[in-house]
Specification:
The chain is of the alpha/beta class. 37% of the residues lie in helices and 23% in strands. The chain is globular and about 55 Å long. The mean pLDDT is 94.
């Protein structure tokens, strides 16, 4: 077997939220690094590496073949979860894409609300929109962390469905359940959010209010 490769900190963060023994559907898999790595580590027994476009999926298949895990990682052309059946996976990772795209994928697959699936989400943009959507639609963030990858700050979250629909405060959509009081990386991530909100506040004062409420926790 080839030597196990390393995940960058962003994908490693996503990997940390996958339960041992899970059956994973990795949506937008690209090179299939996340599912292949988890299989090689012995963390999971089976994964579907799915992508909407043939070229990224080809790269993913090349990774699967290179590491000889064709019997445990299946590559599949699928727009979001369209070609995935609910019983094929209990964990669904959607990472490396925009927040609105993630919301669209979840909206198009109502079965993710069956209470049997764990979501691992890592939006590249509009994280606040994803958090707002999750809570308004009965989901809950059960774990969240932040990291730096390629010089940029990211957050990823582990999500479950509770059926309890909540309108969360605006500041919560930016902080989630991060704990800047005790975690320096979380503090760094939220300091960046405050800076971004500060720029937006020049055009709309509501963003200053949100930024000030987040700053109270730092």
């Amino acid at each position: 077997m080839r030597e196990l490769f390393s995940l960058d900190s962003r994908l490693a963060l996503c990997a940390s939220f996958v339960s041992d023994g899970a059956r994973l559907a990795d949506i937008g898999t690209d090179h299939a690094y996340l599912p292949v790595h988890l299989v090689l580590e012995g963390r999971i027994s089976y994964a579907i590496a799915a992508d909407i476009a043939p070229e990224p999926l080809k790269k993913g298949h090349e990774t699967v073949v290179k590491y000889r895990v064709e019997d445990r990682v299946e590559t599949r052309l699928s727009p979001g979860l369209e070609k995935i059946s609910p019983e094929e996976a209990d964990h669904i990772s959607i990472a490396g894409m925009g927040g609105d795209t993630i919301i669209g994928i979840l909206e198009a697959s109502p079965w993710v609300k069956d209470g049997k699936h764990t979501l691992i989400l890592q939006p590249m943009t509009k994280v606040h929109r994803v958090v707002k959507y999750l809570y308004e639609n009965g989901f809950e963030i059960v774990a969240q962390d932040a990291c730096v990858a390629g010089g940029k700050l990211y957050t990823a979250m582990k999500v479950s469905y509770t059926g309890n629909c909540i309108n969360v405060p605006p500041e919560f959509t930016y902080t989630g359940i991060l704990t800047p009081e005790t975690n320096p990386m979380h503090r760094r991530y939220l300091e960046h959010q405050i800076a971004v909100l500060g720029k937006r506040a020049k055009g709309d004062g509501k963003y200053k209010v949100i930024a000030d409420k987040i700053a109270e926790r730092l």
